[in-house]
Structures are given as C-alpha cells and as structure tokens.
Amino acid sequence: MTVNDPARSAAILARLDRLPGTRHVWVLIGLLSLGGMFEFYDLFMTAYVMPGMVKAGLFADVKVAIFTGPALFVASTFAGLFIGTFLFGYVADRYGRRTIFTWSMLWYSAATLVMAFQDTGTSICLWRLIAGIGIGVELVTIDTYISELAPKKVRGRAFAFNHVVQFTVVPIVAFVSWLLVPLSPLGLDGWRWVAIIGSAGALAVWFIRRAVPESPRWLINQGRLDEAEAITAAIEAKVTADLKGAPLPEPAAHSVEKVEPKGNLMEIFSPAYRSRTIMLMVFQFFQTIGFYGFSSWVPTLIAQQTGINVERSLHYAFIIAIAAPFGPLLAIAFADRFERKWQLVGAAAGVGVFGVLFAMQSAMAPLILCGVLITLSKNIMSYAFHGYQAELYPTRIRARAVGFTYSLSRLSTIFISFMIGYMLYVGGTAAVFGLIAFAMLMVVLSIGFWGPRTRRLELEQISQ
User: Fold this and answer.
1) pLDDT tens digit sequence for 182-221
2) Which residues lie closer than 8 Å to 112 by C-beta, 6 or more apart?
C-alpha cells in the first residue's frame, strides 16, 4: 500500500542518519563496492587489452574517416556509457536501486563475455558498446545507492572506501593484462582471457543481492513506508549488535522530501536546481578529459614517450596502476573533514600540473613518478565527484539527474578518444597533456565558483 506520511518518513530518515559507522554499515558499503569492482575491471581493461587487439590485427581494416580502430574501440566503450547514463539512468529511480544494481551487472558481464569471442574489429566494437550501456547504468545506480544508505556523518568516507575497493581492481587488470596479453594460453589470444575474467561479475551478483537491502529512501519516495521501516529496523539491529548492545544515538529532527514516485527529469532545470545542473554539466564534460584521457591511453602514452614496445609499456603501466586505490585510501583521512568541492578543485589542479610534468619526461623513473601522481590525483577527484553529484538532488530524481549530468562526461570521452589519438599522432604527449591541463582548469573554475557545500548535511537538506 502506498502511504504519504511526512512525520513517519522523517522519523525513519532520522533513524538512518543517526547510525554510527559500525562494521555492518561498512559491510553494506563494501558489498556495493564489490559490485562496482567488477564494473571498474570491465571499464579499465579498455586501455590494457587494446594493444593486444592491435597486435592481433583485429583493427587493421577498421577506420572511421581519419580515425583508427583503437580510437573507435575506446569510443565504443564510452558511447555505450553515454547511452546507459543518458537514456537509461532513470531506471534506478523507476524500478529501485537493488533491482537495477543486479540486472545492469548481469548485462555488462554477459556482453563482455560475448565480446571475448568476436573475430572482427567491427563486432568487437559493437559488443563493447552494448557492455558500455550496462556499465553506465551501474555507475549511476551505485552512486545513488551508496549516497542513500550511508549515514550523513560518514558519507564522504563511504565514497572514499567505495573507490578504494573499486580501484583495487585496476592494478589487478593491469597485472593480468601484462601476464596474458602478450601470450595465447590454450590457443586463445591473451586479451580474450582478460575479457573472460572480467565477465565473472555475473557469478557474484546474486550473492551480493541477497545481502544488500533496498534503499529505505527510495521506498519512502514510493510510499512503501512499512518496507522502509522494516529495513531500517533490521539495519539498526545489526548496528546495535556491533555496538555490543550499547544504545544508539537519539534521532534528531530531520527534513523530508515530497513523495513523487516517478519524478520528472525536467525538474533538474527548475530554479532550485538549474545552477548546480549547469555546473555539473560543465564539470562532467571536462573532468573526463583528464581522467580517461590518461587512463585509457596510459600504455600507449608511455610507449610514445619512451619508444619501448607493447610488452614493456604494459609492464610500466602496471606499476603506475598499483597507485590506483591509494588516492581514495588517502582521502578516507579527510573525506568528511573538508568540503568535497574543495577536494575536487585540489585534485583537478594536481592532474593538470602532474600531466604537464609527465609530458616533459623521457627517463623512465620520473615518468613513472608523474604517472603515479596523476593517478593519485585523478582518483581522489573521482571519489569526490561520485559522492558530490549524488548529494545534490532529491531521491525522486537522484538517478535521473546523476545519469543526465554524468552522460556529458561519457559524450565528451567519445570525441576525446578520437581527439587524443589524433593529437598523439600530430603533437605527441605534450599536445595530449596540454589539452588535459586546459580541461582541469575548466573543472577548477566550475566547481570552485558554483559548487554548493554538502559536508555532513542530510541529503534532504542539500536538495531543498
């Protein structure tokens, strides 16, 4: 039965937000992050399997205008992400966080498995696009899910921990690629084995689904208060057990949103949200240039800068990738101490400065050092904006809004894939990192001037 009872809704939300960050709270965040880990494996393997595909000659006859097959492969990934976030970002608002978390994970795992057995560059790009749709939906859903389950006092640390878990898989995929891509175990190209391993997320999804509840905030917005209260009570019981029976803090007065089960995307352009929507659109378009402009091309950039072969560039890319989880790991120490907007500004500045320094190096040691510093900076930026964008809108349109604004980053990456390939050809790594530095300046200006504060505020306060 659908119920609209603001007082009861506020009481449930107050009970959720007063919870301390005990073991059970972190287990819930960890399980969602584990789902995201498979997603990040699938996403970040783009850079590491591409050299193997090129070596196998799969892109020899694939070309769009002046752009090569590898650029088209990267663009196919992000075209799928754009479709998933822009066209299907709303599904988590419509059908629930838990349901869409499950099905999107199955979607991209299955598509990646099919891609692993394709024999033409065109079919590989097609199935990469299909997998990207599922990855895009999952990205939106996980951000929304974590923001709604994490108590307000640990929300920053929850996103930092989430990214520690997810980014742990980046050195894993780099290591697996370093070992397998140059080889053909059992007569199957190494890049195919890397993709097959990535599809294993389908095996984990049902176990995660059984352990993670639906978002009480989403249930409240659907008017399903009995279910929301039951889930909240179950979480409280487990948190109390973590505290060895010690009493929970008393709930404080809490804001509440209007109940509107279906929401409306155009609300993000209403006077209440217009400025933050435009701010996020500018931010998302430019941040991805720095993030994926480096991540998706790092083995190629190293090879271009030093003249080494594919196998050695993958080796050094793996060394840089080891730093991936350490950015958000460092952020756990300050995630809830400073406003997320200033964390974003500082991290974006780091990507720009260290990127320019990367382009000036030719010796391997300083090149790797700059690559590590870029990785730390961009992953702090990633943790911060994934949490930040999910905080700025009400529950009824949270996934829609995140999907719409986030889709701008996927759209820019489609073009950036081609642009970086072209600039690398005509201007080398200096031209690539000049573009990245400009993009990071746009990030600093958009967030620094127009980003609202969110630290330790109720989601319902931020969205008012």
Assistant:
1) 899 999 999 999 999 988 877 787 788 889 999 999 999 9
2) 42, 127, 131, 195, 198, 199
